[in-house]
Amino acid sequence: MTDASASPTPPAVLQDLPEGATLLKEGKIPFRPKERKLETAPLLLNKAAWVLVVGSLIPWYGHDGGWVTTVAAKAVVALGCFLLYCCVVARTDDPVPAGLGALGKARWGPEWGTKTRGFKDHILQLIPTPLHILAFLVAGAGFLLPLADPQMGDLLKAMVEVGSLLLGGGTLVHIFAYRKGAHFSPIFPMLFIGPALAGTSILIQTIGGGNIGSKVPALLGSILSAGAGLFAVYTMVLALMEAKKEGDAKKAAAVEARKAARAARKS
Questions:
Q1: How confident is residue 105, by pLDDT bands cut at 50, 70 and 90?
Q2: Who is most buried in 30, 81, 86, 207, counting CB within 10 A?
Q3: What digits encode the pLDDT tens for the residues 36-53?
Q4: What's the N-to-C CA distance of the chain in angstroms?
Q5: Is the distance from CB of 65 to CB of 149 less than 8 angstroms?
Q6: Phi, psi (degrees; rounded to nearest 5) at 114
Q7: Alpha-carbon distance 257 to 58, whole Å?
Q8: What is the CB neighbour count within 10 angstroms for residue 254?
Q9: Burial of 208 (0-12, 13-18, 19+ CB in 10 A)
């Protein structure tokens, strides 16, 4: 029997190209979010972020702000981080919480996996949907809300405290995105150096000033913030060590491959 597929006569109707081939032709890479198993460094950074979030909820930095800073600003920042989490969920097949799916699916930026071309594409890649704009606006409003606090004592300290919550929540979202297939950024653990220095400074002042019993929030918050920051810095060092080991292993494998190729040519 003659195989029909081997016939020199072309078929009357050509089949459509598969989706992957079409995207390849258009210069795109199909976005396929997958559940990635977290390595040691992201796992540790995730724990450090949770510690920083808990510590940042405590009014510990001595800014003497009122409820606008200690409650409202932190609540708005937490909402912004939740919206950022929804932005990540919108990239997957899972339902977006709080009925925000429509805001996450309407895209004006480049499609997932598309190579950006020019400054405009880079900007739209950061805010590709209305949900992204809403998330960044809400998170930014929460961070700046201490400016409207009529009882504010030290604005810089207030923004550091609120900013630590934003850093902790944003890092949790980043780790979640990494677990769903995004790239891991070393910038996040580097930013934890700020809470590490601030927490250590307040901890030394609190212990050195005596009468610790009346400064429990400052003591507890500074310990958590300093601990989270130092722990995150440790994860950054660990990640660099793991990256060096992987790089050395790849170099060794390449050397062995070249040796094998030369041996094969000689034989």
A1: confident
A2: 81
A3: 888 888 999 999 999 999
A4: 44
A5: yes
A6: -75, 140
A7: 56
A8: 10
A9: exposed
